[in-house]
Amino acid sequence: QVQLVESGGGLVQAGGSLRLSCVASGRTFTNYAMGWFRQAPGLEREFVARISWSGWTGSTSYADSVKGRFTISRDNAKNTMYLQMNSLKPEDTAVYFCAAGSVPFDWNMNYWGKGILVTVSS
Asked: Dihedral (C-alpha) 11, 101, 80, 120: value to the nearest 10 degrees?
């Protein structure tokens, strides 16, 4: 059974940094896309960043709102994905979700973690 578990969230002041981790179990995700999404109170879930399957180097993309501040990466040996978040703003406050694909070499993501709260105070 595939499971994605996020960690690293919490409370941080504006301008600070956090690193989120997503550990995958139940399957190796080397050939699958992975990504981060977030949902702020009262709003719909939105895309944050994604990273391609291994072998396609350099294929990452970001929402315009986080470009230049957030960095997505993955460590296939640990079956883990990361989101380094710098220069955090109050508007980054949200529940952050890890996601992964269910079809190799495809961008659709169908597996989801339960989410972790990030709160940025002003």
From this structure: -10
